[in-house]
Amino acid sequence: MSIDEAALELIQECVQRKSLVYFSTDVAQIVFQTQILWVRHRMVTLANSVPPEHIGKVVDSKQFFLKIQAVRFVSDRLVSDGVHLQFPLESLRVIEDNRNAKRFIFDANERVYVEMVNPIDQETILRKVVLDLSSSGLSIRTPTQSQLYRPGQTFQKMRIFMDGRVTQEVDAQVVYQQIFLNQKGKSYCQVGFKFDPSP
C-alpha cells in the first residue's frame, strides 16, 4: 500500500514532536533508534544513527524499514546527502498499520515502567522501562536478549506505573525481542508484549 495523506501527517507529526522512530534493513540484524529531521523535496530525512561498523550491512541491503508508532514503512531505496539518511517519498510504502491501537512512546525521564514477577522462579520482581504502550500491548527495554523473554512466554499481573502510580494491571505474552541501538549508539534489547484479552 503506497503512502497516503494520513501516513504523511504521521511523519510530519514526528518532525514537530521530535519523536523517536526506528530504522532497520533486511540485512542488518539490528534496529537503529533515530529521529525524522524534516520532509523536503519529496524526501524524508533521518538523523544518521548508524555506527561505522554497521554501515556495510546497511549499504548491502535491498529493503529499508521505518517504524513510526504503530505504522511500518518499507522502501527499496535509501539515499544520503552525505550526512543524513533519506527515504524518497515515492518509494515509501506502508506494510503494517495498527493505528486503531494508538501507541504512546515514552522516554526515560517520563518515569513509565512496568513491574512483573519472573515467571520462571515465581519470586523475583522485575522492573523495566516502558518504551511504548497501546491498548493492545507494550514494549520494554532490557540490557540484553534473554530466554526469559522468548516469544510465547506469559507474564501475569504486570503492573504499569506512570509517575509512581499503578495505572493498569495486565496479563501479557511476549511476541518479539530485538536488539536496537539508541541515538547515542548504546545497545539494548526491546521486548514486545501483547496483552491477553480480558475473559
Instruction: Please state how the strands of the largest beta sheet are arranged side by side.
Output: 10-11-12-15-14-13
Tell me, rounded to a whole number, the average pLDDT.
90
Helix fraction, binned, reads 10-25%
Form type: globular
Q: Are there runs of 5+ residues with pLDDT below 50, and where?
A: none
Over the alpha carbons, how many angstroms does the gyration radius reach?
Answer: 18 Å
Structural class: mainly beta
Sheet with the most strands, sense and barrel status = 6 strands, antiparallel, barrel
Compute the separation of the termini in Å: 35 Å
The number of strands is 15
**Count of DSSP-assigned helices:** 2
Task: Give the DSSP E fraction (strand runs of 2 or more residues).
Answer: over 45%
Task: Explain this structure.
With 199 residues, the chain is mainly β. The protein is globular and about 55 Å long. It has a 6-stranded antiparallel β-barrel with strand order 10-11-12-15-14-13. The protein has 2 helices and 15 strands. Strand 6 (79-80) and strand 7 (85-88) form a beta hairpin.
